[in-house]
Every structure is written in structure tokens, then in C-alpha cells.
Amino acid sequence: MSGANNTTADYRILDRDSLPEYLAGIPAVVEVLGPGADLNVREIGDGNLNFVFHVSNAADASKAVIVKQAVPYLRLAGEDWPLGRDRMTYEIRALSLYNQLVPGLVPKAYHTDEQMSTLIMEYLGDHIILRLGMIDGIQYPKVAEHIGYFMAETLFATSAWSMGSTERRQLMEQFTMNAELCKLSEDFIFTFPYMEHGSNYSNPATDVWARENIHTDSQYKLDVLAFKNLFVSKTEALLHGDLHSGSMMVNQADSYVIDMEFAFFGPIAFDVGKIIGNFLLCCTSHYYRSGGTEYRQWLLQQIEVIWNTFGSHFVERWTQAGESTLLTNGFLSNDEQAQYRQTYMHTLLQDAVGFAACSMTRRTLGIAGVADIRDIEDADIRSKLEIANLKLSKRLMTGRKSLNSIDDLLALIKNFYSSPIL
Amino acid sequence: MSGANNTTADYRILDRDSLPEYLAGIPAVVEVLGPGADLNVREIGDGNLNFVFHVSNAADASKAVIVKQAVPYLRLAGEDWPLGRDRMTYEIRALSLYNQLVPGLVPKAYHTDEQMSTLIMEYLGDHIILRLGMIDGIQYPKVAEHIGYFMAETLFATSAWSMGSTERRQLMEQFTMNAELCKLSEDFIFTFPYMEHGSNYSNPATDVWARENIHTDSQYKLDVLAFKNLFVSKTEALLHGDLHSGSMMVNQADSYVIDMEFAFFGPIAFDVGKIIGNFLLCCTSHYYRSGGTEYRQWLLQQIEVIWNTFGSHFVERWTQAGESTLLTNGFLSNDEQAQYRQTYMHTLLQDAVGFAACSMTRRTLGIAGVADIRDIEDADIRSKLEIANLKLSKRLMTGRKSLNSIDDLLALIKNFYSSPIL
Predict the structure, then answer these.
(1) Closest in A169, A222, A232 to B177, CB measured
(2) Which residues of A touch B169 (CB under 8 A)?
(3) ipTM
(4) d(CA A318, nearest CA chain B) in Å
(5) Which of B194, B234, B332 sits opposite A233 (nearest CB)?
(6) Which pTM does this prediction carry?
(7) B332 touches chain A (CB under 8 A)
(8) How many angstroms away from the CA of B1 is the closest CA of chain A?
(9) Closest CA to A19 of A47, A40, A45
(10) Cα–Cα distances in Å, from B397 out to B155, B275, B310, B353, B356?
């Protein structure tokens, strides 16, 4: 089974001019926007792959939808980098499943159109992209809990600890061919940033440091390759696949996870590690962005809350689960199961830290940087922050096997940040 | 994509009486058997799942074919254990691929019929099932090399070290839904033998020992569950999935691997460990079956040859490989690659030993025993050998993480066998 919608028949790229007419033909959307309304259309995506529009009733901005369309190339790189529109099929499948598993934590879909590779979703009112809020130093009291809960629910429910053997294989089959986006991750997260490659970002002082301390650090690169191998070969659960602060819309009360087009069966630690890595990238940026220590401390606390919420909910689901692919009544006693879970969560933390390390380096040296750092105009400042992120990535990678708890991880991070960053 | 041939239209179960007429309608088979020939038909399978017939020209026994048909239940358990015929689809797909990868080591297919879930293959002349030859103490000078070479070629070629990202996912998709046979392995290799279960074999003295030393050994069961998790979630390469001495036809010169209906994407160490475990089961049986030490020594030598042939060919392919999912020019130096391979092969050996341990216990306590042991009529003798196999399984599981080489493994095994077995 594959999404195979790469034929050009019935497909056209939507833009600000053509969107109103397209939307006028979809009753479910007309109902939201109001019949015959004048529409305001603006492009809002900071994603790297697709076009995302906000469309609202010109007379009543509270009536609005989000339109997301996949184009047959990598938006970030332009038409010279072809990329199948199939990815929207996987986003639709993942969003449908998440609507069942975590309905309050993902947007509602009003309309899906596989031929047009288009998804029309709930407009999230007064929410903003978490990354932008974090750059501005805004604290969101619920976001870490929401992230932890989202991961626990979606990752446990699609794992072999929860699903039966055959139903799990049926779900796997629905995502196996999300091949192009998996390949993007393989290349841009786990390969190009660690070597000389034309796609990489460049900042002279950072380049020099990377050449001497990343490209030539054998053990670090061997570790990265081991994590790439996990990414490629560990089909543990259905991952979001791109869970970072740019894939969340938040306000003080609510958090919504978006952009699940990278969804595939992979290692649970990847989703967990990627979000941790992104909080650390932001934390480093605030050595420049904010005066005091308060926001940085808040960010590190959120890493603790993310892990603890994720871990406790994941283990709770596991403890309550009935029989599944990996759970058989009578095989292990309750004590033995608890012992297995403890070892498992311990390894999961260590692997998440390894994936966090990869995320930090890819976002520093690779094509797709984070605005937290890349938007800082002063190249010298930026380079100091970039090198700090690379150093922290290396510390995480080297130190991960000594970590027995989230406290150990936070101690390692705080120890790192106790040296001057700027 | 799925084999979905479980409709009953156009399907009937073949037997000795109906086979000749069925075969007479297939020109490619008539050509082999001779037009209008009287046919001798005998059932020959010692497999647990399917019916296997030898069909020959009554006047010229050199003209013969093998007919293998999947029936909609587990042959070993009977019609009360339904099992989809889809498995033949996966055997056909795997055999087709193996015909390309290792043409001299698998039988040629004359005719495949997915509607009838039937495969008609080359008759392997004066070959016998390896297990039966090994029970009789026959030495096969080439078999270990052939096994090692078969595994190296098939496992490397279908791994992410050899295949590109997208083509690998396409191949994975062809086997993802071999769900029923994967479920059988999950249950019968990794679950039921380690607990009280109605399907298990029973021999009173063995049962008592197992209850006190297997069912209640927490660490051993936790290790088994970890290997079950690898089996379920590590999609490393296309495995044969049931590679034991009953899945090979041999003579002094040639070896053919058969019975690949369990083929699926799993951990490479599973195929490697299963065959090692089966050589060990046979070795233990020869403490009763043969007088001297010669055959046992030969069997242990074969384990060494299997591993060394497998390892050297696998690494050779890896060294020669071009770019693939996991290999990118310019990412690692040659020395770094060599270092990665060394670590990888080291872990692979340890994991293979863990899977060997699981195989030995499942073949001892589970429903599907090996004739090497189960055909010994004296229950006391049998129990002593069974308990020896369980003890060795536990030693392998406990000791695997200290093994740095095949020499270490053989030293562990020889040390075990230095204590009295009978």
C-alpha cells in the first residue's frame, strides 16, 4: 500500500490567488469560513517542505482555516530538489491516527484531498509556533507536560508493547513507503553535517571548528552512524518523525503538535531526543538573547518535565496494558516486568540523548538550521553559540552511557553550561 | 502489497491421488517428468507447516520434482490451528530473490502457483535433509562453508549497508505482511517454552528442571524478552527466518537451503544464531548417539567454519560495497569504517549467541522439537540430553556479553561439555 499520488492529473499548486476559489468548492470549509465571504490569505509556514496558508474571513478573523499543500519539490531548496507529494498522504494518515489517540493535542482536519496533496485543518486561534515563543523568552506552563504526554500516548500505542503482532504489521505497512522523507532525515540529520558537503550551512569560524572537532572525530562519527543505523533499522513505534519546537503551536493553555509528514516506524528515542535537542539549542541561544538566567533555567526545567511526563505516562500505559506482541500473561511476574521496564527506560534515555546530540549538530552545521541561532545577525556571536552547541552535542554523545536518570542528564548539561558560552 | 490468497476459489488441497492430474496440466513440469509418464508420489516433508511431495517418473527416477503446498492450517497441529496460505507467497518471493543472490545454494523453481499456494521445484537428487545426515553422524565437508556463504550473501545484500534507502523500503514492503509466520515465531520461539503453556512438549524430569531453572529464572526470561523485542523491531535485513539443519538438503558436494516461508525483515543475528543453536542441539545428542568424540568435534568445528565464512564474506562485501543507505563516500575514512565493522561484527556474534540460546530452549521445551533429541526413545536419556541443552542455553545467554571472538564462544561451549552430559 502506498500513497502514490504523484500523477499530475487533478493536481495544481495553490497560491494566494487561486486558494479562495478552491476553498469555495469545499462545503465543510465554507461552513467554517462563512458562505460567500471575502477571504484573507497569507502564507505562514516556517517549515522546510510544504506551503502553509492561513485563510480567514475578511470580515471576521475568528473564522479561519489552515491550508497545507505538498508541492512536488523540497520547498526549502526549490524546484531543483524534486520530492514526491506522497508525503501528504503520510501526514494525513498520521494525523487521522493522532486524532484518535491524542485528540486535544493535534488540530482537527476539516478536509483532506490526496489528489491535491492538501490538508485543511483547524486554525489554532491565538497560538503561535513554539519556537518563536521560545526565541522571545515566553514561558508556557503546560507545553512540556503536553509534549511528554503526546509522545507517551502516540509512541506507546503504536509499539509492540501495545499492539498485537498482525495489527502492528498492518500499521507498519501503511508507513513503510514514506521513503523520500526517511531518506531526507538519513541524509540531513545523520550524514551531511558531519562531513564536507555542498548542502551544509557555512559560518567561517564555525566551519573551522567543525572541521577540526566534528569531521575528524572518529568516535563521534561512529556514534552518529550507530544512531543512523537505529533510525533506519529499529521499527519500534510510529514516530512523529520531526518533533521539534517548530512543529508545535502553543499558547498559555494549549499545545498542538503539527507537521507529521515525516511519520514512520522508527526508534522511540528519536522523537524524545529531537525535542530535547531543540530545547537545548534554544537554551544556548538565550546566552545571547536574554539578560538573566531565568529563561535558560526554565528551558532546562522543561526538559526534565518532558522526560518525566513522557516516562511516567509511558510506563503507566505499559503497566496497564493487556496482552500484545511483547506482553503475554504468565510469561513474566509483575516484579520481572517492572525490572524489564526499568532497564528499557534507562536505555531509552541514553538513546534519546544520542539522538539529541545528532539533532543539535544537524541544526548547527546542516542546511536546516534553527531560527533560535541562525536569526542572530552577528556572525561572531552566532559562531560562539554554534560552537557551544557542537561542544554540548559531543558531551552528550560521549557521556550518554553514564546517564542513569534525568537528574544525571541535567547535571551533565548544567556542568557544560557552567563554562563560559560567549 | 500483500499475498492475500486466502480465498478458496481455485484452491484445493493436493494429495497423492490428485497430484498427477494437477502436474499433467503444467508444461514446464511435464517437461521435467516426461510426457505421459506414470508418476510415483510420496510425501517427504519433515517441516511443520506444509505438505511436501516427491514426484518422480515411475520408469526413470532421475526425472523428478518437489511439490510444496501450503494448506490453510498449521500442518504440525492440524486443522484446528488455522493458518493463512499467504505464507507460500512469501516463500515464492524469497526463493525468487535467492535465485538471483545465491543461485547454486537454493533449488530452482519450475513453476509457482499463488492461487494454489504451490511451488514446484528442482528435485535435489541424492541429497538428504542435513538434520537426518547429522543424526546419522555423517560429515559433510562443504556444508558449513555453504551455510556461512549463504547467510553472508543474502543478509548483506538485503541490508542497509548494501541497498539504497528507497529500494530497501520497497523490498521491506513485500514482506511486512508475513504476519502469521512472524507471530508463530514470536509465540513458539520466544514465549511459550519459557512458561507453562498447553502447547509445550512434556517429559517429566525435564519439566521439573525447566520449572525450577527456566520458568523461574528472571534474568534469563528478561534476556529472552529482549531478544524477542529485537526479533520484532529490528528490521535489519531479509532473513530466511527458519534456517536450521532441517531447512537444508545436502550431500558431500552440494548444499541447498530450502523452506524460506518465514522470510521477513529482522535482525541478522537471528539467522546466524538459529543455525548455531541447531548444531549444538545435535552435538549434545551425540553424547548418546555416537561412541567417540569425533563427530561432536566435527560439529563444533562446523560452528567455527560457519561463523568465520559468514563473517569474512559479510565483511568482504561490506568493504567492497558502493554507496547505500548507511554508506556515504566521505563520511568515514577507511580506518573508521573498519573500526565500525569490527564493533558491529562483535555485537552481531553476541546477539547470535543469544538467539542460539533461545533456539535451543524452544527446541527442547516447545512444541516443535528436533529429531536429534526427540527421536531418542529412552525418556531418561532424552531428559538428560534435554537438560544439558537447557543448561547450555543458559550458559550462552549469561556468557554472551563476554564473548569477543568465535574462539571465546568455542571455549565456552567446550568448557560446558567438559562436565558429564549423561
Answers:
(1) A169
(2) 176-177, 179, 182
(3) 0.93
(4) 15
(5) B234
(6) 0.94
(7) yes
(8) 5
(9) A40
(10) 23, 16, 21, 7, 9
Mean pLDDT, residues B265-290 taken together: 98
Query: For residue range A6-16, what is the model confidence (pLDDT) as tens digits?
Result: 445 689 999 99
Q: Are B273 and B353 in contact (CB under 8 A)?
A: yes
Q: Does B80 touch chain A (CB under 8 A)?
A: no
* Spatial CB neighbours of B370, under 8 Å, sequence gap ≥ 6: B131, B244, B245, B246, B278, B281, B282, B363
Beta bridge partners of B327: none
Give the pLDDT confidence of B290-316 residue by residue, as tens digits.
988 999 999 999 999 999 999 999 999
- Verify whether the Cβ–Cβ distance B165 to A176 is below 8 Å: no
Tell me how crowded residue A214 is: count the other CB atoms within 10 A of its CB: 21
Q: Which residues of A touch B191 (CB under 8 A)?
A: 328, 331
Any B CB within 8 A of A326 CB:
yes
B179 chain-A contacts, CB cut-off 8 A: 165-166, 169-170
SS3 state at B182: helix
Residues of chain B contacting A2 with CB distance shorter than 8 Å: 173
Cβ atoms of A344 and A253 within 8 Å: the answer is no
- The 3-state DSSP class for residue A188 equals helix
Give strand ranges (E) for B16-151: 39-43, 51-57, 60-69, 73-74, 78-82, 109-113, 118-122, 128-129
CA A296 to chain centre: 21
Burial label for B261, CB within 10 Å (0-12, 13-18, 19+), is: buried
Number of residues in chain A: 422
CB pairs under 8 A between A and B: 117
B241: left (phi over 0), alpha (psi -120 to 50) or beta: left
pLDDT, tens digit (0-9, with 9 covering 90-100), for B176-215: 999 999 999 999 999 999 999 999 999 999 999 999 999 9
Q: Are B48 and B76 in contact (CB under 8 A)?
A: yes
The Cα–Cα gap between B224 and B229 comes to 9
Q: Could you tell me where the beta strands, DSSP code E, fall in A207-307?
A: 237-239, 248-250, 255-257, 264-266
Question: CA distances (Å), A44 to each of A47, A67, B184, B419, in order?
Answer: 9, 10, 50, 74
Backbone angles phi, psi at A264, to 5 degrees: -165, 165
pLDDT of residue A48: 64
Nearest in space to A263 (alpha carbons), one of A106, A57, A30:
A106
Contact residues on chain B for A232, CB-CB shorter than 8 A: 160, 165, 325-326
Query: Which of A160, A169, A191 shows the shortest C-beta gap to B176?
Result: A169
pLDDT of residue A47: 61
Domains along chain A with CATH numbers: 19-122 (3.30.200.20), 128-417 (3.90.1200.10)
CB–CB contact A176 B172 (8 Å): yes
Percent of chain B beyond pLDDT 90?
Answer: 89
Stretch (H or E) spanning B365: helix B334-365
Nearest to A331 among B165, B191, B226 (CB): B191
Cell of A19: 486558494
HSE toward the beta carbon, residue B236, CA cutoff 13 A: 21
Q: Does A211 touch chain B (CB under 8 A)?
A: no
For testing contact with chain B, the best of A233, A327, A339 (most B CBs within 10 A) = A233
Q: How many CA atoms lie within 13 A of A277 on its CB side?
A: 35
Return the C-alpha cell found at A297. Answer: 533555567
| Inter-chain CB proximity B232 and A339 less than 8 Å | no
B128/chain A closest Cα distance in angstroms = 35
Q: How many CB atoms lie within 10 A of CB B46?
A: 10
A94-111 core/surface letters (b: 16 or more CB in 10 A; e: else):
bbebbeebbeebbbebbb
Number of other CB atoms surrounding residue B262 within 10 Å: 24
List the single residue in A with minimal CA-CA distance to B330.
Answer: A195
